Predict the structure.
Amino acid sequence: MKRILLQSTIPTTADDWHIGRFSLLRETLASIRGEDGQALFDVTARDRGPVDAPDPVLATLDTSGYDQVWLFAVDVGDGLSPEDCEAIGRFRQRGGGLFVARDHMDLGSSVCTLGGIGAAHFFHSRNQEPDPSRHQIDDTVTTNISWPNYHSGANGDFQTIEVDGPVHPVLRDSAAADGALRLLPAHPHEGAVGKPDNDATARVIATGRSQVSGRRFNIAVAFEPHDGNGPAIAESTFHHFADYNWDPSLGCPSFVSEAPGDGIAGSPEAQRSIRLYAENIARWLARLPT
């Protein structure tokens, strides 16, 4: 059985995006079965330790028994210590699978210091999008959040994504006419990701479209395994996997001000697509067929 770590970059904080707010993802990953009917993944979910010291799990990740890590960067820039980043880098160098999601503006910007995949995440104050024309506000509803903040829809609604290039394994859907899944959770202010310069192992695999400006933006960047390095995914927002986005009735932190939608609740197809995306990522990071 493969071991998955779902990890936030903040200490447990009730009124924030702690790892308990990703319980539906944890249940989905733990429910995946192999052809023999046995569970494929043992899933652990935890928040980081105090931010004034290396995290006891992340800073020793390369010597752990985990096979893949889903890192939800919900911090304001201080979520990873140098020791954490170095160990995460060694973890991937030994073949571990890595998924890193952040959010708008500078939320989760501690991931900038991660080797390789950190360069795929663009923020407001650090590692900005290479195209200066994108340094502008997209979500004009929530005025206290600046760019990058691509508005793909309300929390609780879904968006239709576009496949970029050949269908990547994490986007495969055997039930779809073209073999690709198309529906993911929406969010009022998604962050920005892109292919790092001079990294031939990476490519954008999916894009979304702003419901405000009509502008296309990147949803996910995939890094193929190479030279002993494990596979990796850079995701534009952790809200594609948060309980509140899958089911708003499960609640959110008090600082979330936007009214939620009910599109996912009324669409069994969106619910299936969203869970399939999570399952595909877990299988691909584990180098199992999708």
